[in-house]
Specification:
Elements: H1 2-31, E1 54-60, E2 63-67, E3 70-83, E4 88-99, E5 109-123, E6 134-142, E7 152-163, E8 166-176, E9 182-192, E10 198-209, E11 215-224, E12 230-241, E13 244-258, H2 259-270
Length: 279
């Protein structure tokens, strides 16, 4: 009887959370009539890509993670995006996790979340100064971590829409992880319009593994954009996965540099004369 009652309560809670998430998606559709990918400080991304022949670096020097009584630091968290022809980018990302309290027989530091992906904009919309929603897809190869032997794969659909109050990004993703686990997730990012260069933002996400109870998370953050060259961010992430409670502190920056600028700086460093440009 107690087991049945507990299962009934869990099923009801899951139904309520699923309904709330559906309401949020409906609000997305209503509010977005009418900008860098993962997209700091979030887990999700947007339907935009790096500029052609530009490198975009998303760097978190050190981020604290707590799972119940266990704590670790990701130092650094890095994503490198390279803009290809218009509407496409390549992404290489990963993090170095350092456990603060070591376990005998286990390394204190190891790479995690290493992935190589391709994002493509399918429809140019409000993020590209056009009308309507921007639509993109992203496919990635997931590299195995310690104890895993096979590659994984992920595919996601991204819808973004910008309006005067702010920008919204909807993500739906399916994964086959290197450990043989199937996962599915969906989430929303809400970014308010910036005031004096500061924009508040929030991410809501739900993720399920092999049909089990979902993990729910929320990220609350601020993004500071002093100019076109760089963005700075700070955020808190709260999540619940089964009985585990997860807390993260994130902070970092995003900046772009063109290939032409890199070449020019390298030529200056070795003393080569500047190239003549054709107009």
């Amino acid at each position: 009887m107690l087991v049945a009652a507990r299962l009934a309560v869990l099923t009801a809670l899951f139904a309520v959370r699923t309904a709330l998430f559906a309401v949020l998606i409906a609000l997305f559709a209503m509010l977005t009539a009418g900008v860098a990918q993962a997209y700091r400080p979030f887990d999700l991304t947007d339907a935009e890509v790096a500029k052609r022949h530009n490198f975009e670096f998303e760097l978190g020097p050190a981020e604290l993670t707590g799972v119940d009584a266990e704590h670790s630091v990701r130092a650094p968290v890095l994503s490198i995006n390279y803009g290809l022809v218009t509407g496409r980018e390549l992404t290489l990302e990963g993090a170095n996790r350092v456990v603060l309290r070591s376990t005998p027989g286990e390394p204190r530091a190891q790479l995690e979340g290493v992935a190589f992906g391709l994002k493509q904009v399918l429809r140019r919309g409000s993020l590209q100064d056009k009308f309507g929603p921007s639509i993109a897809i992203e496919n990635a190869v997931l590299f195995p971590e310690r104890g895993e032997k096979h590659l994984g794969a992920a595919a996601s659909l991204i819808l973004s829409s910008a309006s005067r109050p702010g920008t919204t990004h909807l993500n739906v993703e399916a994964e086959r992880r290197p450990g043989g686990i199937n996962a599915g997730s969906a989430g929303l990012i809400f970014e308010a319009s910036d005031h004096f260069g500061v924009a508040p933002a929030m991410e809501l996400k739900v993720e399920a593994l092999n049909g089990g109870l979902p993990e729910h998370s929320v990220i609350l953050g601020l993004v500071y954009v002093p100019g076109e060259e760089a963005e700075y961010d700070v955020a808190l992430r709260f999540a619940r996965s089964g009985d585990a409670r997860i807390f993260e502190v994130r902070a970092g920056m995003t900046f772009q540099i063109s290939v032409h600028t890199v070449i020019e700086k390298a030529e200056e460093a070795v003393g080569l004369p500047p190239r003549r440009r054709r107009h």
